[in-house]
Amino acid sequence: MADVHPQNPAPPRRRRRERGREATLAWAFLAPSVAVFALFLAYPLGRTVYLSMHGNDIIGRPNRFVGLSHFAEMATPEFGGVLLTTLLFTLGVVVPGVVGALVVVLLLEGVIRGQRLLRGAFALPFAFSVASASVIFSVFYSPGNSVLNGILYRFGLDQVPWLTSQEMALWSVCITTVWMNLGYGVLVLAAGIGSIPKEVNEAARIDGATGVRLAWDVTVPMLGPQLFFLIVISTINALQSFGQIHILTGGGPVGSTTTLVYSIYQYAFAYGTSDFGRASAQALVLLVVVLVCTAIQFGVLERKVHYA
Predict the structure, then answer these.
(1) Spatial separation of the C-alpha atoms in residues 264 and 257, rounded to whole Å
(2) Which end of the chain is more exposed for a tag (fewer CB within 10 A), N or C?
(3) Which residues lie below 8 Å from residue 167, measured CB to CB, with a gap of 6+?
């Protein structure tokens, strides 16, 4: 019987050459992505950290090292008010926006005819730019010829200072933002409902689940991934909102609508201040806030998401 010799493994030098070629090929494919990441993420972040630790001259050029003094200067009641306003604005946008989109989609499920047309109508605000939607709502809120106050007057109700009252201005901007984002939420949740197998709803109906019970016990749990995605994205977008605040209120009255993003703008660009050091420090605080909120949402909400 002939001896069977095992195959000789490749020499170590040959294996090292093969691994080297594979690593070179991998880096060649990764190079464009790494370059884009470095250009648009790594460098701006590093520059922001650098600016946050330096003072600057009248035209914004860094001219002295100040360490962490810009961060220490944030320990004031004024900056605490900015953070509180940011929190209230985020809650006032995310909660009504997600709940409103969910209610609209669930109600549309009961419509037999014209369902696609109605979905398109509710999704239409998503097509408006921030500037266009803000200008439209500025007409609605205008103190002189407010459309909303005209409607209230017709019903014999008192006029509301939508944008000129410290108590109402922030919520007026929230209403505008919810309207702008409602279409996106409807599209996301409608796609989620379309992916639910019909057999699931049929089985639930056979078991006697109808109406609100069917929606709450079957449809909403099956929409868990879409709702989780929508909450995370809506939170990030709310924390970064700027255009509607700038157009409708300019951060006023008396700073009642000055969120963290708008405070960054005021330090960096408004009134020709060019205080890029303080603005960069607040930008890093905003980055931390976004990361913390996202981490909490992934740690708490994702555990309750049911992936079919």
Answers:
(1) 13
(2) N
(3) 256
